[in-house]
Design a protein that fits this description.
This protein is an all-alpha fold and about 90 residues long. The chain has a domain of about 60 residues: Helix Hairpins (Orthogonal Bundle). Helix content is about 60%, strand content about 0%. The chain contains 2 helices and no strands. The longest helix is centred in the middle third of the chain and has 36 residues.
């Protein structure tokens, strides 16, 4: 039996972080449980690798956004003193 043609658009590339992680966890469970045969396990592994790549890319972008926000919050040109305030630095 011939395999279906490869989808040119990777469905993992459209998933959000949480959904990609959920799918990845389900793949890991199926492979570890042994419920999938060898060929299916290989396909699942390939799908899991794509999901992992997607999750890492999302996390990398999030880290970059946080770093940018940190730099912006320390910019004295924004009216700030440039000193970050901690949770106990309130106006009490």
């Amino acid at each position: 039996m011939a395999e279906p043609p490869a989808n040119p658009i990777d469905p993992a590339s459209e998933l959000g972080f949480e959904e990609a992680m959920d799918r990845l966890e389900r793949i890991i469970e199926r492979i570890e449980s042994g419920e999938a045969g060898l060929e299916e396990s290989i396909r699942e592994y390939e799908a899991g690798a794509k999901l992992l790549k997607r999750c890492r890319a999302i996390l990398e972008r999030a880290e970059q956004r946080v770093a940018k926000l940190d730099l912006e919050s320390l910019d004295p040109g924004e009216g700030s003193t440039g000193t970050p305030r901690g949770p106990d630095d309130g106006d009490s």
